[in-house]
Amino acid sequence: MRVAVVGVGYSGFNANTPDLSWKEIMYEAAVRAYEDAGINPRKDVDSFVTCAEDFWEGFAIFDEFVPDQLGAVLKPTFTVTADFLHGIANAYMIIKSGLAEIAVVEAHSKASDIVTFGEVIKFAFDPIWLRPIGKAHPYYFAALEKSYYMSRRGYSDELFAEVVVKNKKHGRLNKDAPYSANVSVEDVLSSEAAFYPLRKLEIAERSDGAIVFVLANEQVAKELRDDPIWINGIGWWSETSNYDTMSFEAAYAKKAAEMAYKMAGITKPDKEIQLAEVDDRFAYKEVQHIEALGLAKKGEVEELMKSGYFDRKGELPVNVSGGNLSVGNLLEATGGQKALEVVLQLRGEAGRRQVDAEVGVAMSWRYIPTATGAVAVFSR
Amino acid sequence: MIVEKVKGLKYHKKQDVAIVGAGMTIFRRRLNETGKELSYYAVKQALEEAGLDISDIDMVVMGSAPDAFDGVHMKGEYLLDGAGGSNKPYMRVFVGGGTGVFAPIAGYWHVASGLADVCLVVTEEKMSSSHPHPQSAFKYIWDPILDRPLKPNLIWIFALEMRRYMHVHNIKHEDIALVSVKNKANALDHPAAQLAAKITVEDVLNSEPMALPVRRLDVSPPSDGASALIMVAPHIARQLTDEPVWVAGVGWSLDTTWWTNRDLYFPRYVAEAAKMAYKMAHITDPRKEIDVAEPYDPFDYKELHHMEGLGLAKKGEAPILTREGVTARDGDLPVCPSGGLLGVGNPIAATMGVKVAEIYWQLAYRAGKRQVPKEVTTGVAQAWGDLMQVGTVMVLSNKR
């Protein structure tokens, strides 16, 4: 029995949303997803999964506040403290276990409510070993990783600038990409080296939004619509949360991808996958993730990137939506935006940025300071 | 368009799920160990009981209640390497205070879906890092506009609930206090217990008032601790033990955020969760078919409240069953033979050790001095949490 996505809905994505509360953006996304799937949440949905971290939300037990606006009151509902794709993994397993025929996954970001973003991230550091680093912004840890990774692979700084140029250009065709722009490699390289060697334009700004997916088992999916998008594989993996023991080469993405590919029966990802949306909340992360997902060989990304291989019109389009560099950092909803783009593309509903693809992959990372990621393979 | 669906759940799961090992640390206030270390101890015990090594574990599920206790953001990531989750698929699930029974439910679907054959479930709580008291973390669980300005705390709202329950069924405090007397005495046989004691009803009624009718001895203590459980597919269970305990049913339900709009005398969310779990376990008369129960008992009235939610007693009947000794360890329906949260301690998510793990030990006849004298086949464990809002239920059986 397979599992499919039968409805998607989203709200946003905006740099800030002063007019709506997080409950309202969740409601908007949910209503659109239920409408898209043609279901009634009170009657048809067997289980609800939400994805949130307490500190991002400013609550101590955030899952208390999710049921009403999703239509999930007195239903099997719970929270995963991880990315949207981890939520998809749970919904997938709940359906595979026969606990539900239809399951809903939600994630959102109201990042614009967070006043001291860097300070919140620091609360994720080990309180004894790492948190006492004083006033240093956590982005310095990303800078260290970039530095290590560049020297390890011999990539030049232009490569990461190319990633920014490509993604910000892709975002120009996406009406929901508040940070899209026409920039040049020179613009990126001359932007402030705020966290050397990480430059300002290589860091995704934060944005608000919510994403809701409706998942169903094979039989129900076929009843609901003619074009369900199948989840062929799902994988998630954690290395460690300690900076001194993580690989700095996105091993979490490699392992999560191996798990998802095995489930999907994919042996040559660079040939079998036609579309990828990967976490690019720092420009170098896109390069790491392309390698980890097996979409290019180690050390070859620079040449391919410069030749336009990963462009919207290239051989293997990566981050056609504009990625996080255009859409923004959506916190735990980041994987949701990735999966949403893949589903819209596979359904042929991506408008001006439509590409031709049968199989697409979405990948997310849990941001600083984690080495945790998830990968989902979708097909028409 | 609204489709004609809802055919009822079919339970076409990939494979059955067995529990083959469990472990837990002692429960205490201010243990010296970090949360990572506590997790490690519990995992080590569970692996030893199952006869497995950490490399045999396919996937890890973590359960831990709010990050605010530890002051650590992404607490799941922080606990990861202590819990044996590094270099594995690792998932943290969360339903506030209900996490202790919810984490093994997530463990269940990791195995039942066929994605894992061996799943380690770890739950951890370190409440004592919170200064001056864990109640200060609970300041942030309220709606910021409607509730928070009233400066409520948990004892205060449970006092409302307890009073409502007593009022509707005309229950005396003496009858409720019997639960505390029973559970603290049961805990005398638990090696991990924090507040095991021989006390009397008078002791409870004369203890310090917290927020009346709640008094000091009506309440479980804040604790530090961890517990672990190993859940496996049938072909693995066969290799490890002759007497696995099977997961027969799981259920969970989350009620509205607006706790002020509920009639607090009956936990509907527990009843909904139990309905789901019983349906799956083919239980139609829980009072007759359940042999041993571990309902969540952070307060003494809560055990009674939850027995009624679980259908183990009619509404208002649980205090009578308790007074008649039915729920004693040697009674007809032993309830909280472990000593529960009142006796063993209440490290929120880590109470998996006195709920699901206890039922596992009882059904595997491994509960030692706590073993109930009657023959047991089926048991139920339940937890509860959030704003008097979530019920999580697991039914176990030693017959497949």
TrEMBL record, chain A:
Top-level taxonomic group: Archaea
GO biological process: isoprenoid biosynthetic process
GO terms, molecular function: acyltransferase activity, transferring groups other than amino-acyl groups
Thiolase C-terminal domain residues: 249-365
Signal peptide residues on this chain, from the entry's feature table: none
Keyword Cytoplasm in annotation: no
Stored SUPFAM superfamilies: Thiolase-like
Keyword Lipoprotein applies: no
One Pfam assignment: Thiolase_C_1
InterPro entries membership: Thiolase-like, Thiolase_C_2
Keywords: Isoprene biosynthesis, Transferase
Protein name: Acetyl-CoA acetyltransferase
TrEMBL record, chain B:
Key words, A-Z: Isoprene biosynthesis, Transferase
Pfam families: Thiolase_C_1, Thiolase_N
Domain Thiolase N-terminal, first and last residues per copy: 17-199
GO biological process: isoprenoid biosynthetic process
InterPro entries linked to this entry: Thiolase, Thiolase-like, Thiolase_C_2, Thiolase_N
Name used for this protein in its record: Acetyl-CoA acetyltransferase
UniProt domain Thiolase C-terminal: residue ranges: 262-398
Keyword check for Transferase: yes
GO molecular function, one term: acyltransferase activity, transferring groups other than amino-acyl groups
The species this protein was found in: Ferroglobus placidus (strain DSM 10642 / AEDII12DO)
Keyword check for Transferase: yes
